[in-house]
Amino acid sequence: MERFLGKKIYGQKVAIEGQELKHLKVKRIKAGELLEVLTQEGWFLCKFEGFQKDLGICQIVERIEYTPRFPTITLYQCTPVHLKTMEDVIVGVSQAGAHRLVPVISERSFRDKKTILEKLPRWEKLSLESLKQCGRREPLIVDHPVELSKLETTSDLNLVLDNYQEGLKIKDLRLEGVKSISLVVGPEGGFSSKEVQMLKDKGFIALRLEPYTYRLEAASLVAVAILTNL
Ligand code: SAM
User: Fold this and answer.
1) pLDDT tier for residue 44 given thresholds of 50, 70 and 90
2) Helix 85-96 and helix 216-229, axial crossing angle in degrees, nearest 10
3) Quick check: 7 pLDDT over 90?
4) Where residue 207 sits, what CATH number does that domain have?
5) Which domain range does residue 90 map to?
6) Does any ligand 1 atom lie closer than 6 A to the CB of residue 206?
7) Domain count, the chain
């Protein structure tokens, strides 16, 4: 079934507008067709009624219930020096099932916080587009940037992906009872040894993916995909 992003609910109706209206037209959705529509109040199964001026009008049939996925994975991604790479990270880990992405400023990352903040609307848009494509129910949350030195072990399992160390291997991980995972991934130039030590001192466990070194966008995608499938 086709999926669309709606905005507000008016009584028993949802309006589709803007870019989404264009998609509705391109896909030649006809009156009477059933659609899944995401609104600020969640997902609804809707029947498309037709166009009114600049709106596509849908009649709500029922709310779509879903159970959130566990463990939730928060990806702390050190911002790539080539900032555009963050877009590949977002699209990848959104499909793979990460719950939240936090851009992290580290020694070797892109470090201009103002520019990162300016990118957030674009990254949130990509997260929503990816949700439509891959079928997940909740969008990947894209959070405000934080400094690596401020990270704390707030999850049940706290991992730092490190290609230099002999860390834990995926096959050693046990996720029974784990409801939340934090995963820290480095920028193109990796972490400094001081940074890795600082994270370990805070309780992050180093995890190594075998057998080679991945580009950062591949490392985050592979790690999230494996963790969601364990
Ligand atoms: N410049 C680093 C080097 O020369 O080894 C490579 C950094 S890698 C491109 C970027 C990040 O991806 C790393 O900091 C790490 O977080 C993650 N990464 C890539 N391959 C990995 C692996 N095999 N195991 C664990 N982490 C990996």
Assistant:
1) very high
2) 10
3) no
4) 3.40.1280.10
5) 72-229
6) no
7) 2
Residues 26 and 86 both lie in one domain: no
User: Looking at the structure, do residues 86 and 145 belong to the same domain, yes or no?
Assistant: yes
215 and 136 both lie in a single domain: yes
Final residue in a domain of this structure, among 16, 34, 63: 63
Please indicate, yes or no, whether residues 111 and 224 belong to a single structural domain of this protein. Answer: yes
The verdict on 55 and 104 lying in the same domain is no
ipTM score assigned to the predicted complex: 0.98
Q: With 90 as the cut, is the pLDDT of residue 182 above it?
A: yes
Q: Which residues of 124-140 are buried (b: 16+ CB within 10 A; e: fewer)?
A: eebbbbbbbeeebeebb
Ligand 1 centre distance from Cα of residue 145 (Å):
20
Site to substitute for ligand 1 among 163, 166, 173, most atoms within 8 A of C-beta: 163
pLDDT value, residue 10: 87
Judgement on whether residues 189 and 214 belong to the same structural domain of the protein: yes
Instruction: Give the SS3 label for residue 63.
Output: strand
Q: Is 142 in the pocket of ligand 1 (CB under 6 A)?
A: no
Tell how strand 34-39 and strand 42-52 pair up. Answer: antiparallel
**Overall average pLDDT of the 161-174 stretch:** 89
Q: Is the CB of 38 under 6 A from ligand 1?
A: no
In the reported structure, the alpha carbon of residue 38 is separated from the centroid of ligand 1 by a whole-number distance in angstroms of 36
